[in-house]
Write a structure and sequence with these properties.
260 residues; mainly alpha; Serine Threonine Protein Phosphatase 5, Tetratricopeptide repeat; 11 helices
Length: 260
């Protein structure tokens, strides 16, 4: 979605709203991916190295999780004293997730690559190499056991990161790109990420009138930018929730006139 190279502060400040929206998007994608890995391993007791390699990547070919870690550092760690405690904690947790994922990737590689090789060799030389293969089977078994513990830690860390994100988002309620992302993905976020109650509470903290207030906020900002068709779409969503909302009907009338 974006380059993860270190961004110069003046340039970053002009793009902060965009990158903050991207950060939230990328975090959500990462959490859902981690949930998928966790569920797959719980069901099958297996973890495919390819899935981890695509997610983490390498220094020369960074994956989505690596880019998320870099973007988080640039937005919050390099912000210095302007960052609050929740932003510092979020950045630290994302870094911890990344390092756990690196270990997870290495252990998955050992299990997937070396275990079959050892099994083949032990069949060819059942007695002469048994003392060697037994020792290395133990190493690989430790790596296999580590997969469960590392996945559990990553799963727990994502929950902690989500708790910090809930504290961070209200600080940026004026970021229309961020608010639009939350509203446009409300179903996914409510069902798969935050949970319905936490998501509704988050919107309520950001906008005292809840989802209606959020939709009308975005609609007004769209109208200010000349995006009247978009404004109509958001106002209609507000009216669907609160059909008697006077402000919503006034905005709808104004926006509709501009789209004629």
């Amino acid at each position: 979605m974006h380059s993860s190279e270190k961004m110069e502060n003046p340039w970053l400040e002009t793009k902060r709203d965009i990158f903050l929206r991207d950060l939230v998007h990328d975090f959500i994608e990462a959490k859902l991916y981690a949930d998928m890995l966790y569920e797959k391993h719980s069901e099958t007791a297996r973890l495919t190295y390819r899935l981890l390699d695509e997610w983490v990547g390498s220094e020369n070919a960074k994956g989505p999780l690596w880019n998320l870690k870099d973007l988080c550092h640039n937005l919050f760690r390099n912000k210095g004293p302007k960052s609050n405690l929740h932003e510092h904690l979020f950045d630290w947790i994302i870094g911890s997730i990344f390092h756990e994922a690196i270990k997870l990737k290495e252990d998955a590689y050992q299990v997937e690559t070396y275990k079959p090789l050892l099994e083949q060799e032990s069949l060819k030389h059942p007695e002469s190499l048994s003392h060697i293969t037994t020792e290395y089977f133990e190493v690989i078994e430790n790596a296999r056991t580590n997969l469960s513990a590392e996945l559990a830690r990553i799963h727990a860390l994502f929950s902690k990161a989500l708790s910090q994100l809930i504290e961070i988002l209200p600080l940026y309620r004026d970021n229309i790109l961020l608010v639009r992302f939350l509203l446009d993905n409300a179903k996914l976020l409510s069902e798969k990420v935050f949970g319905k109650k936490k998501f509704n509470n988050l919107i309520q903290v950001m906008f005292p009138e809840g989802m209606v207030g959020a939709y009308l906020f975005v609609a007004e900002r769209c109208m200010q930018g000349g995006w009247y068709r978009e404004a109509v779409r958001y106002v209609k969503k507000a009216i669907k929730i609160d059909a008697a909302n006077k402000k919503a009907h006034e905005l709808l009338q104004k926006a509709a006139q501009e789209t004629v």
